[in-house]
What we know:
- The protein is of the alpha+beta class.
- The chain folds into two domains: 7-62, RNA-binding S4 domain (Structural Genomics Hypothetical 15.5 Kd Protein In mrcA-pckA Intergenic Region, Chain A), CATH 3.10.290.10; 67-158, 2-Layer Sandwich (Alpha-Beta Plaits), CATH 3.30.70.580.
- Helix content is 25%, strand content 18%.
- It has a four-stranded antiparallel β-sheet with strand order 3-2-5-6.
- Strand 2 (33-35) and strand 3 form a beta hairpin.
- Helix 1 crosses helix 2.
Amino acid sequence: xxxxxxxxxxxxxxxxxxxxxxxxxxxxxxxxxxxxxxxxxxxxxxxxxxxxxxxxxxxxxxxxxxxxxxxxxxxxxxxxxxxxxxxxxxxxxxxxxxxxxxxxxxxxxxxxxxxxxxxxxxxxxxxxxxxxxxxxxxxxxxxxxxxxxxxxxxxxxx
Length: 158
């Protein structure tokens, strides 16, 4: 683990790259997760040196040198989602060997810079509205921006 302190079990599982925190909670609730040979419960803590097994497989903590960070010029037609059922999603497009997540979204019809990483905490820190990160977009439109168009946008996107 990166720190010498305890971490919530679902976070540990997620940071190992196996699944999301929600999916980790489902594994725990189903009784498929063990810490040091003892069946785990939702909310349990993992301490340095603990052994965590999910479905019989031992998980390795994500080490700092294992962090993946990708800068991608997303082309038009690729959807910024991790949903496997969505055709032409960004995860299929990148086809990385590690479980990664896009940091933010770009519409399917948009092209531009998007970052992907396997570090879920980073994604949450950047995207959480409460952290008030300013976002800036450069947009090209296919018709003139009139005062009426701007008024409609202000009503739709306050």
